[in-house]
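Here is the promised in-class demo. Please do not try to memorize the tokens; focus on the logic of going from shape to residues.
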């Protein structure tokens, strides 16, 4: 009979294991457990006995299914697998990702080319797909297109006029999917001036009879006051970009006719954003807006690109949470050595910016711990650690900034009373009579009944020379 495995005679004759237990190496253990050096353990989960007795898992590993696996992984058929990324064990042991898919966060997803995203098993471009615009499942309304991940109306969007990315300039607007100069109207696929166009006079499709001209939106036989006949049309030479100042004198692209002169409304200080709109003294025209010198117009608002958190260095470039705009750069005022606590506040060489304050390194002069990187200020120097107490200092020559214990038998800070420092950062609290107090007692004290006390003056009763101030005890009296 094998006493090491018999459940009726486990370890010795007649010793039977309870129900639900089995004999393992002469010891009754719960079913599924194994006796390892006198202890019943589960070899599938015990970190000190993983798979078999004595096989301990290394630090940072866990025992799973009898296999030591790094934290976060699981044992699958005796091998460790990361269920979030393993293509053969994706989300669960044995779940294999089929061709064209990849295990991502425990799910088999379709592998898409660079710039595309898998949405419901199909690779799409979130920046241009109208059914998945900006995010999977975000569909654009009927008649809109997806441009740069946002749904827009190509018929009216000045940033995407007619097609994605086609931007109308400052002097134009989007109508019917085409950029038209301000002051014109979209009629039958063309941008026309309803005040002068003989085929669209006053409104689209209203053509003037033969022999008449369109003047200020009305069909006439001769031009009204303020208009001039140019190439069969009545035009205002002070405002017509194709006949500016005189017939057939067209303004260049991006220019507008103001008072008979071609100007740029985005930069002209006399016509800033509109004819006759003059900038005040000390201001300049920026993108059609009068701004103070040093400022820039961003969407019609004057801002300082050097310090505007929403337009840092360029229009629309916003600083993220916890960042501030300093000298056209988004910085963290809590950690930036060049802008510590405020733009332009620069920390000195060796200092570090912490919580918006310039902190000094060890060994530098200080008055409070808040001035130091370490947080400790002792003996007027930034110290590497707390250094309070009479028997240690942070200003020891050659070790400035580092807490050092005073040598045994000394008391340079005179904080130990009649005792001296013990060399371990504290004062002695007792002494040895046999040594007359040295080195635990100061020179002005001696050891009496295990305690340091002041020496006696002349004439006082004594037994030892060291008990007297003079160092001489004769005839039981101090000399």
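The designed amino acids, position by position:
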């Amino acid at each position: 009979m094998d006493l090491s495995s018999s459940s009726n005679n486990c370890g010795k004759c007649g010793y039977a294991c309870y129900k639900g237990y089995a004999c393992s190496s002469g010891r009754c253990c719960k079913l599924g457990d194994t006796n390892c050096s006198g202890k019943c353990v589960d070899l599938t989960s015990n970190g000190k006995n993983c798979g078999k007795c004595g096989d301990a898992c290394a630090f940072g590993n866990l025992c799973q299914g009898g296999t030591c696996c790094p934290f976060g992984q699981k044992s699958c058929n005796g091998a460790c697998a990361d269920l979030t990324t393993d293509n053969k064990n994706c989300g669960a042991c044995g779940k294999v990702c089929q061709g064209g898919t990849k295990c991502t966060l425990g799910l088999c997803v379709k592998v898409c080319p660079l710039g595309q995203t898998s949405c419901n098993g199909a690779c799409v471009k979130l920046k241009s797909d109208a059914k998945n615009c900006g995010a999977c499942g975000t569909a654009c309304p009927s008649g809109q297109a997806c441009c740069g991940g946002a749904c827009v109306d190509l018929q009216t969007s000045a940033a995407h006029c007619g097609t994605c990315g086609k931007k109308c300039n400052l002097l134009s607007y989007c109508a019917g999917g085409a950029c038209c100069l301000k002051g014109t109207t979209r009629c039958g696929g063309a941008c026309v001036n309803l005040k002068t166009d003989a085929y669209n006079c006053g409104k689209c499709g209203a053509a003037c009879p033969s022999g008449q001209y369109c003047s200020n939106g009305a069909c006439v036989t001769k031009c009204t006051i303020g208009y001039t006949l140019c190439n069969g049309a009545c035009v205002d030479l002070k405002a017509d970009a194709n006949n500016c100042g005189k017939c057939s004198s067209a303004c260049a692209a991006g220019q507008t006719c103001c008072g008979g002169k071609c100007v740029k409304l985005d930069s002209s200080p006399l016509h800033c954003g509109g004819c006759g709109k003059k900038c005040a003294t000390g201001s300049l025209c920026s993108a059609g807006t009068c701004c103070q010198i040093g400022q820039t117009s961003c969407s019609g608002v004057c801002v300082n690109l050097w310090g505007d958190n929403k337009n840092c260095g360029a229009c629309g470039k916003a600083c993220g949470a916890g960042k501030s705009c300093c000298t056209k750069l988004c910085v963290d005022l809590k950690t930036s050595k060049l802008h510590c606590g405020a733009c332009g506040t620069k920390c000195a060489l060796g200092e570090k910016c912490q919580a918006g304050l310039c902190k000094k390194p060890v060994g530098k002069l200080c008055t409070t711990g808040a001035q130091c990187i370490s947080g400790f200020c002792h003996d007027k120097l930034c110290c590497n650690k707390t250094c309070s107490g009479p028997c240690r200092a942070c200003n020891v020559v050659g070790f400035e900034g580092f807490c050092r214990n005073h040598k045994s038998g000394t008391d340079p800070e005179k904080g130990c009373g009649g005792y001296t420092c013990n060399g371990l950062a504290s004062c002695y609290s007792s002494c040895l009579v046999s040594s007359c107090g040295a080195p635990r007692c100061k020179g002005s004290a001696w050891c009496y009944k295990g305690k340091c006390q002041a020496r006696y003056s002349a004439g006082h009763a004594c037994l030892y020379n060291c008990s007297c101030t003079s160092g001489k005890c004769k005839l039981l009296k101090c000399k």
